Amino acid sequence: MALSKESVASIVTKFGKNEKDTGATEVQIALLTERINQLTEHCKQFKKDMSGQRGRLMLVGQRRRMLKYIQRTNLEGYRKLIKELGLRK
After folding, report:
1. Which tens digit of pLDDT belongs to each residue from 3-45?
2. Within the chain, where are the H helices?
3. Residues 6+ apart with CB under 8 A from 16
4. Alpha-carbon span 78 to 74, nearest angstrom
């Protein structure tokens, strides 16, 4: 269920400062969002996969903590990021 190299590279170039900027908070949040979306589709298909649901909830919590951090440090960047990712906040 990992992301492909091409999708990771496209997300990094879209949200990072350059193509090697994988550590930026915005990039990490975008990558987590993509993984969460994939796991959501997986969990819709396989309703009894509790470990998949648990993993998805753990990723959602991690993304929430990162969003809290970026909201504290860079409010304009936070607003731009949630608008681009289509998150409800």
Report:
1. 899 999 999 999 999 988 899 999 999 999 999 999 999 999 9
2. 5-15, 25-45, 50-73, 75-85
3. 22, 24, 26, 27
4. 6
